[in-house]
Design a protein that fits this description.
The complex is a heterodimer.
Chain A lengths: L4 H10 L3 H6 L4 H20 L5 E7 L9 E7 L8 E8 L2 E6 L2 H19 L4 E8 L13 H6 L6 E8 L8 H14 L5 E7 L10 E8 L1
Parallel strand pairs in A: 6-7
Antiparallel strand pairs in A: 1-2, 2-3, 3-4, 5-6, 7-8
Chain B lengths: L6 H11 L21 H10 L9 E3 L2 E2 H11 L3 H4 L2 E7 L8 E7 L4 E6 L7 H7 L7 H12 L7 E7 L1 H12 L5 E5 L6 H6 L1 H7 L3 E6 L13 E5 L20 E2 L5 E2 L8 H15 L3 H20 L2 H9 L4 H17 L2 H12 L5 H11 L1 H7 L3 H10 L4 H9 L3 H12 L18 E5 L2 E4 H27 L1
Parallel strand pairs in B: 5-6, 6-7, 7-8, 8-9
Antiparallel strand pairs in B: 1-2, 3-4, 4-5, 10-11, 12-13
The chains are: A alpha+beta, B alpha/beta.
């Protein structure tokens, strides 16, 4: 069996059968893992044709309580230290794959939209971080709609971290600020969870200079 | 050590690292979406969806939903722990086996806490055992590279921690990077003799920063040589998973009537584990470097199948053609060791029984010990061996077991052959200490015996070359 160098590297990290992997004469269990790895890679390529991917590792389900394996991957187009994760689950010899890479496509427009919205509401926004709890399958590719995600029509598990400049707030009634944010976002039909962090000043450290933090469920 | 974290807090942090999908994706601690949140916010979020957590379901190896809820309720009144901020969550992007870790921040002490989760899958053992023949392992290097990439300048104290493989990574980083102030390795395995020899000056410099926290019957911390101080804790022994439970991160967490979590120091390591530790050390030392990789893979495969609780799988991992020679070495060594230290086999029997395995295999092994010459002569004829066993009134269970696993006979013949060539007392079972492999010239200068021997060898070669050149010139 022809196996690329990067595939060998991944397999060697999850199998004791080093010699068989090097010679390409895979055992059944390793051949299954290779099929799964290729299925995940094909899924990513088809789902996100503008990006190039490399699978760098795996935590197989074997030995865990999970029903899926986690495949770690990188994208050449995204410069970040941490890997991305795709989850694959076997169903009748086919693999159902889900991933969180879609966040890279919609994060920026959502962040810009929220910043605009909250600034208009006279909230002293320092920055907003957007992330998603859910892993989505092949039905949501590069064309995923940021609007549908924001409103919850596509359930991506929206999570917004809003950092505000406390020195520009009229008073220290942070509960009132939370209410204001909640009303503003709900009025615009935005769904998800907000984690509000109020810093002592606009150039304050995100961890050291916190004066308040709490969650808001929209 | 100057960390402001208590051991209870360290244990709880390490338990949190394993939280996955508790009541939904929000209940995964090592998720990038948790960045900037506090531990308190994570715990409140999980408890908000507590009704969605199934009590009897195992959410990570050995830890049920009910146990995780207990853990969350225990954290709720712990203000210091709750105020710790999750600064960065990292998914391993280099190397093959995955892995997750986090940078946490304790604002009350300006302390950075770098925590490594132990990978949970069977694949964990591939890197665990590669520590026998590779210095350092790929996982260790990856962890160090990520640690070095972190901006830790502004912190007063730097603490690293981790459970299982995560504990080993934490120790490795402490040895290799002088910036670390404290290391709490929870049930983490040690390092090979080669590692200790290679890095002895660094180990000597940093080992006082390391505290090994282990359940008294944990079976992972016994692997290879420990570095740093050790403290054992009583295990809760819920009894659900038997022996395997001793390695669960919550294995040492006791709760009182109001849900407060406590841990209790044990007088020392469980004697069975201590005996197994020594035997494994001496066995590993008896293996040549050239065959260590094969032996390591066999050991890993045996451990993975042993933890699955499936006797057939365990037998397969011994008799499989790739492993059989290494497995024969291990069994032959164990049997010879048993002759010298008879209590050892009792420990193995007890461990197998606790883990739900058939101990019939030990019956067959006992037979080999007593009749190794006979086994070598007629072992290739399984029916003849079975007839002799029947004549000697061996138990029906043993006969049935052997009939079911005829593939074991080749292995047993190989074991009989190897047994006579082994001297189990030749190699020490004690942990190798950096002090034993280092020459201290003064408090500022240390040199490992390994480096010194290279230097002396180099000096001899250079001197001989010079003498030869001089002799050639004089001769002309």
């Amino acid at each position: 069996m022809d196996i690329t160098a990067s595939e060998k590297k991944v397999l060697n990290g999850i199998s004791f059968n080093t010699e068989e992997i090097e010679s390409g004469n895979l055992r059944e269990s390793d051949a299954t893992l290779l099929n799964e790895m290729r299925a995940v890679e094909n899924y990513l390529i088809e789902k996100y044709p503008s990006f190039t991917f490399e699978i760098t590792g795996c935590e197989p389900k074997s030995g865990t309580t999970r029903t899926y394996s986690e495949w770690y991957f990188k994208s050449k187009e995204i410069n970040r230290e941490s890997a991305f994760i795709a989850m694959s689950e076997e169903n009748d010899k086919y693999f159902t794959v889900r991933d969180a890479f879609f966040g890279q496509i919609i994060r920026e427009p959502i962040k810009n939209y929220l910043e605009e919205l909250l600034t208009k509401a006279n909230l002293p926004v320092i920055t907003i971080e957007v992330s998603f709890w859910e892993y989505l399958g092949e039905e949501y590719g590069e064309e995923i709609s940021a609007e549908k995600v924001l409103t919850g029509e596509i359930d991506a598990g929206n999570d917004f971290k809003i950092f505000l400049d406390g020195s520009k707030l009229p008073d220290e009634d942070y509960q009132a600020v939370m209410e204001k944010i909640k009303t503003c976002l709900q009025t615009n039909k935005i769904s998800g969870e907000v984690y509000l962090v109020i810093l002592s000043s606009c150039d304050g450290d995100f961890a050291r200079d916190r004066v308040f933090s709490d969650s808001i469920l929209l | 050590m100057n960390s402001c974290l208590s051991i209870e807090e360290i244990v709880l942090i390490n338990c949190l690292l394993y939280c996955e999908n508790l009541g939904g994706p929000r209940g995964t601690f090592l998720s990038i979406s948790q960045e900037s949140r506090t531990i308190g916010n994570f715990v409140d979020g999980v408890l908000h969806y507590a009704t969605k957590i199934e009590n009897d379901k195992e959410y990570s190896t050995g830890v049920t939903g009910a146990e995780y809820k207990q853990l969350m309720w225990a954290i709720r009144p712990m203000e210091h722990l709750k105020n710790i901020i999750i600064m960065q969550v990292h998914y391993e992007s280099e190397g093959a086996g995955g892995g997750r870790s986090a940078l946490l921040f304790d604002p009350s002490a300006n302390e950075a806490i770098v925590a490594f989760k132990g990978t949970q899958s069977d694949a964990e053992w591939i890197d665990n055992v590669s520590g026998l023949y590779r210095v350092p392992t790929e996982f260790q290097d990856n962890a160090l590279n990520w640690f070095k990439s972190l901006d830790l300048e502004s912190y007063d104290t730097i603490t690293v921690t981790g459970h299982s493989k995560g504990g080993n990574k934490a120790k490795f980083i402490t040895i290799m990077d002088d910036r670390v102030d404290n290391c709490f390795s929870f049930d983490g395995q040690g390092f090979s003799d080669e590692f200790i020899r290679k890095y002895s000056p660094l180990i000597l410099k940093n080992q006082d920063k390391i505290l090994n926290i282990s359940a008294e019957s944990d079976f992972v911390n016994i692997l290879l040589n420990d570095v740093g101080k050790k403290q054992f804790y009583l295990g809760t022994n819920y009894g659900r998973l038997g022996f395997a439970e001793n390695h669960c991160p919550n294995a040492i967490a006791f709760y009182d009537d109001i849900g407060e979590m406590t841990i209790h120091e044990a007088p020392g390591q469980d004697k069975k584990m201590s005996a197994l530790d020594k035997m494994l050390n001496s066995f590993i030392r008896s293996i040549r470097m050239s065959t260590k990789e094969k032996v390591a893979n066999m050991l890993g495969s045996v451990i993975v199948n042993a933890s699955s609780g499936d006797t057939d799988k365990l037998v397969y991992s011994f008799s499989d053609s790739t492993n059989s020679d290494s497995a024969a070495k291990l069994i032959a060594y164990t049997l010879r060791y048993k002759v010298e230290k008879p209590k050892m086999i009792d420990s193995v029997r007890e461990i197998l029984q606790q883990n739900g395995f058939s101990t019939n295999m030990l019956g067959a092994i006992n037979f080999v010990t007593n009749y190794d010459l006979l086994m070598e002569l007629i072992g290739k004829k399984p029916e003849a061996v079975i007839s002799i066993l029947k004549m000697r009134h061996a138990s029906d269970n043993l006969i049935q077991f052997l009939r079911k696993h005829m593939e074991l006979f080749d292995l047993l013949v190989s074991v009989s052959r190897k047994m006579r060539r082994i001297n189990p007392l030749k190699y020490s079972g004690d942990d190798l200490k950096a002090e034993d492999t280092t020459i201290i010239i003064n408090s500022q200068f240390m040199i490992s015996r390994r480096t010194l021997s290279f230097l002396v060898f180099g000096a001899i070669v250079i001197t001989l070359t010079c003498i030869f050149i001089l002799w050639l010139r004089l001769w002309r």
